[in-house]
Structures are given as structure tokens and as C-alpha cells.
Amino acid sequence: MKGKFASALQYTKHFATTGAISETSREVEIEICNNLDANGKIYVEFGMGLGNITKEILDRIPKDARLYSFEVNEEFCEKVKESIKDERLIIINDGAENIKQHVKGDIDTFVSSMPFTFFSKEKTDQILCTSKEMLKKGGHFSQILYSKMHVKKFSAIWDHCDIVKTDNFPAGYVYHCTKN
User: CB–CB of 58/86 below 8 Å?
Assistant: First the structure.
């Protein structure tokens, strides 16, 4: 229990950048990774946090793939570097809006837990549009949010968008978006 309490303390302390008070539930970890391209080469994670979704992604992607995990909190980056030893993982201590500075080539799948609720409309639109531009045709962008208030925004940007509600508390909504 000490680990979960310490983790919750870290998320609460950095609430403005994490948008969460604890790590995502196991149910969310599984659901958000359901559309990972099983044969992909380049994967991007926005909002790595303390790495629980990162571990799930690494468990599912090919041995020769790369996972670029973005996290603005330097302390979280250091903790994940210590806890996850995997040469496929490239930790980037920067914001998602700067993805083009760090990742080249078509991206197979995005997995995101960024707190778009706290971002300006302009920043949100820029991140989502850049992500769509960099995503390969037929690729997926999956996002966990704790509100359905972004449905119109995601549906306007992505060619297809499904939402799956998770039963955890608070209820999570995983947006599964596709680029045709």
C-alpha cells in the first residue's frame, strides 16, 4: 500500500500537469492499449506519469519497435528511468506540442493520458492535429479522459472516434480515434 500512497501523493502534488490524483486503473491500462498496432515500429505515449501504461505498452509491442514517451515532469522521468529498463523506451522530458522535434517518421499508434481539460483550446487543437498529421493511415490515437466533454472536439479532428466508459472511480472515458 505504501507504493500506491506514494504514487497518489506524487500525482496530487503535480495535479496541474497530470490532471489526476492517482495512476490510472488496471482496467484503463488494458482498454487504452487495445488498439496498439501489433506489427508497428513507432509508438508514442503522451503523459507517461510513473509508467504504469508505459509498462502495458511495452508488454504488447514488438521487440524491434520504439516507444517515445513524453512527460513534462522531470521527477517522473527520473523515476521511470530507474524502474523500467527496456531499450525500446525513449523517455522525452518535453511537452507533446514539441513532438516534431523528437520523433521522425510515421507513427503507428498514440496512447495519451494528457489532461486536455486543463489545456487551452489552441494547445489541444495543435497537439491533436499534429498527432493526426504524424499518424500513419489506419493508425490509432487512444486517450483517457475523465469527462465526455471533448467528444465534439475529437470527432471533428479524427475520421472515426469511439468512446469506451470504464467502471472505475472516477469513471474514465477512453477515446479510440482512427485516421483513415
Answer: yes
**Quick one: cell of 23?**
495512476
User: Whole-angstrom Cα distance, residue 72 to residue 96?
Assistant: 9
**Average confidence (pLDDT) over 57-75:** 97
Residue 50 near residue 7 (C-beta atoms within 8 A): yes
Amino acid, res. 144:
I
Report phi then psi at 2, rounded to 5: -55, -40
Q: Is 63 helix (H, G, I), strand (E, B) or coil?
A: coil
Q: Is the pTM of this model over 0.85?
A: yes
Q: Give phi and psi for 148, each to the nearest 5.
A: -100, 10
Count helices and strands (H / E) in the chain: 7, 7
Could you tell me the CATH superfamily of domain 32-178? Vaccinia Virus protein VP39 (3.40.50.150)
Give 72-126 pLDDT, tens digit per residue. 999 999 999 999 999 999 999 999 999 999 999 999 999 999 998 888 999 999 9
Domains of the chain by residue range: 32-178
pLDDT digits (tens, 9 = 90+) for 134-170: 999 999 999 999 888 889 999 999 999 999 999 877 7
